[in-house]
Amino acid sequence: MQQNDLLNESLQELAEAVLDSYAAEETTRRIGHTALPSRGKIVEVLHELRQLLFPGYFGDKALTRESVRFHVGDLLARLGADLTEQTLHCLCTERRCPTCPEPHGCEAEAREMVKTFLAAIPDLRRKLALDAQAAYDGDPAAKSIEEIIYCYPGFYAVVVYRLAHALLKAGVPLMPRIMSEYAHSTTGTDIHPGAEVGESFFIDHATGVVIGETSRIGNHVKIYQGVTLGAKSFPKDERGRVIKGLQRHPTIEDHVTIYPNATILGGQTVIGRGVTVGGNAYITESVPPDSLVRQPEFRLEVLRKAQEKTPQAQKVS
C-alpha cells in the first residue's frame, strides 16, 4: 500500500473518531441549528457605536455642522440593520432553535430591542461625558478630555460596559457578553455587563480590574488597577449546581476610592459612602461610611548584595 493510501486511511479513521465525539458531546457542537452571531460583525458594530457616541474622534474626523446630520443618519441606518441582524442570531442561539418557528415575529422582536437600545444613546452620551470628566479630574497626568476619550483604556472599558449594559437592559442576549469580553481582551479590564455602575465612574490604568455580574457601584467611584469586586462563595442547590440570580458581588456606595490590588468579596459586603480602601486590602465584611481601610504596616528590609565570597548579605542599618 502506498504512503498516500495509508495517509488517507488514517484520515478516514480520524474523521470517524471525530464524528463519534460529536455524537457523544452534544453541548460542544451546533449542527442543524441556525448560525451563531458574528463576533467580527459585533466588534464592527462596537466601533461604529463609538463613532456615534464621539463624533469627530473616531471614523470621519472632518465633520462639520452641516455634514454631521448626514453622518449620524448614515450611522443609525447601518447600525439599525446590523444590530437587528445580530440580535436575531443571538435570540435564536439562546433559544437553540433549529430554524426560527416565527421568523417575522422574531425579527420584529429583535427590531424592538434595537429600537429600545438606540433610544438610550443620548443618555449614554451624558453618562460618558461625566465619566470622562471624572477621569480628567481624578488623574493629574491627564492633559485634556480629548486625551481620555481617545487614549485611555479604562475609559474605553467603561464605554463598552455602558453599551453592553444598555443592550442587556433592552433584552438582547449574548451580544453584551461578546462586547464585554472584547473589551476585556483589549484593555485587561473585565466588567460584566450585568453590573450596575453609577455616574462619574473612573478606572485608572485599567489593567487587571474585575467587576462581577451582581456588583453595585454608586456615583463618583474611582478604582485603580488590579482591583477585584468578586464573589466570596457560590451557594449550590440540592443537585450541586450553582444557584443563579443571587447577589454574589459587593456593593460600593458613592464617593469611594479603591487603590491598586484591593480585593472586595461577597454579596453582603457593603463599602460605605466616602470610604478609602488602601492598596492590597482583602475585604470580606462591610465597611462603615467615611472609613479608611488599609493593610497592617509591613517592614521593608534593604540588604547589601553579597561581596566577593561573603556567603550572606548584610542588612543595611
What is the name of the CATH topology of the largest domain? serine acetyltransferase, domain 1
Number of domains as seen in the coordinates = 2
What is the end-to-end distance? 80 Å
CATH superfamily of the largest domain: serine acetyltransferase, domain 1
- Strand portion: 5-15%
- Give the mean pLDDT: 90
Percent helix, as a range, is: 40-55%
**Can you tell me the residue ranges where pLDDT is under 50 for at least 5 consecutive residues?**
none
Describe this structure in words.
There is one protein chain. This protein is α/β, with parallel strands linked by helices and 317 residues long. The protein has two domains: 31-188, serine acetyltransferase, domain 1 (Orthogonal Bundle), CATH 1.10.3130.10; 208-317, Hexapeptide repeat proteins (UDP N-Acetylglucosamine Acyltransferase, domain 1). Helix content is 43%, strand content 9%. It contains eight helices and 14 strands. It has helices at 3-24, 39-53, 68-95, 103-119, 121-138, 145-151, 153-169, 175-187; strands spanning 190-191, 196-197, 202-203, 210-211, 216-217, 222-223, 228-230, 251-252, 257-258, 263-265, 270-271, 276-277, 282-283, 292-293. Strands 1-4-7-10-13 form a five-stranded parallel sheet. The longest helix has 28 residues, at 68-95. The radius of gyration is 25 Å and the shape is globular.
